[in-house]
Amino acid sequence: MVSFVHGLVAFMLSAYQVFVMPNTCGDGTTQLEYLILANSGGYFLYDMISMGYFNLLDLDMTIHHSLCISGIYCVLNEGHDGGFVVAGLFVAEVSNPAMHMRVMLRDIGKRYTKAYEVAEYIYFVMFFFGRVIMGHPTVWNTVTCQSMHWLAKIVSLGVLGQSYLFLYRMYFIARARLRETSERTKRGFPFYWLQPLTQDQLDKCDFFTKNKKMVDKLP
Predict the structure, then answer these.
(1) Is residue 202 part of a domain?
(2) Cα 98 to Cα 3, 15, 153, distances in angstroms
(3) How far apart are CA 141 and CA 208, in angstroms?
(4) The dihedral of CA 128, 134, 139, 142: what is its sign?
(5) CB of 43 within 8 A of CB of 6?
(6) For residues 157 and 143, what is the distance between their CA atoms, to the nearest angstrom?
(7) The domain containing residue 46 runs over which residues?
(8) Which among 57, 66, 102, 181 has most CB atoms closer than 10 A?
(9) What is d(CA 135, CA 130) in angstroms, rounded to the nearest whole number?
(10) What is residue 57's three-state secondary structure?
(11) pLDDT, tens digit, for every residue of 136-182?
(12) pTM higher than 0.85, yes or no?
């Protein structure tokens, strides 16, 4: 829930900053930008510590959170060009509300519902929109800004590179979800927003039985 609230607040505030109060290279960091960046920097630090405590911290998240914390710190310390980092935050957070929604739906047993499926497809689309369509010009503006701290430039390139790794993995997940949707549609099962498919319906689906066999083979 903490991650969901942070993602939603960061998305809304950064969207306002990017589309209503855009700035250019060399501009001083505004109070709103300080607020947005300090809030997100604190969250990334908290999240990394808590995941480490619960043994959930993997290499991907260690790299991602370390890059974000480093980029935010150096720009806040410099006192200028915070708007470019806020733009990068928008790029990173635009898909997070849908991502967290699908996780929460899955955790409460709503994996095979229309609500979960819609949240997941929105997540895929928004991730591509943020990291590719908006991500490239944002990174370009950052690395070509002469007054931007060199570490922030490296961070922006690192996050972009990691985004492509996530996109590569997401491609296979999205392809599996499309097959799942196609099979369920062909079988004509009624599909509700919050009422999951029954166990009997799932047992008749190839995608479910294949996943179940894979899980059964795990040690």
Answers:
(1) yes
(2) 12, 16, 28
(3) 45
(4) negative
(5) yes
(6) 8
(7) 2-213
(8) 102
(9) 6
(10) coil
(11) 999 999 999 999 999 999 999 998 998 999 999 999 999 999 999 99
(12) yes
